[in-house]
């Protein structure tokens, strides 16, 4: 496929939004896991609470 025919992979396109959702889910799981392991809330861990 020539370079001119490739679909964009940035901005508000499905490809970017799918990866954004996946990374957000991973971040939530990591945040909740560290909250369970340390006993401190996410905001306290970031220094905001």
List keywords for this structure.
single chain, 49 residues, mainly alpha, 0% strand
Describe the protein:
The chain has 49 residues and is mainly alpha-helical. 59% of the residues lie in helices and 0% in strands. It contains 2 helices and no strands. The chain has helices at 14-38, 42-45. It is rod-shaped, with a radius of gyration of 17 Å. The N and C termini lie far apart (51 Å).
Query: Unreliable stretches, pLDDT < 50, 5 or more residues?
Result: none
- Provide the structure class: mainly alpha
Helix content: 55-70%
How many helices? The count is 2
Largest sheet: none
Query: Which percent range describes the beta-strand content?
Result: under 5%
Count of strand segments: 0
On the 0 to 100 scale, the average pLDDT is 86
One letter per element, helices H and strands E, the order comes to: HH
Q: What is the terminal separation in angstroms?
A: 51 Å
Radius of gyration: 17 Å
Shape annotation: rod-shaped
What is this structure's SSE topology?
Elements: H1 14-38, H2 42-45
Can you give me a brief rundown of this structure?
By secondary structure, this protein is an all-alpha fold.
């Amino acid at each position: 496929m020539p370079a001119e025919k490739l679909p964009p992979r940035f901005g508000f396109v499905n490809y970017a939004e799918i990866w954004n959702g996946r990374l957000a889910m991973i971040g939530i799981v990591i945040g909740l896991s560290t909250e369970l392991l340390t006993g401190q809330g996410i905001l306290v861990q970031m220094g905001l609470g």
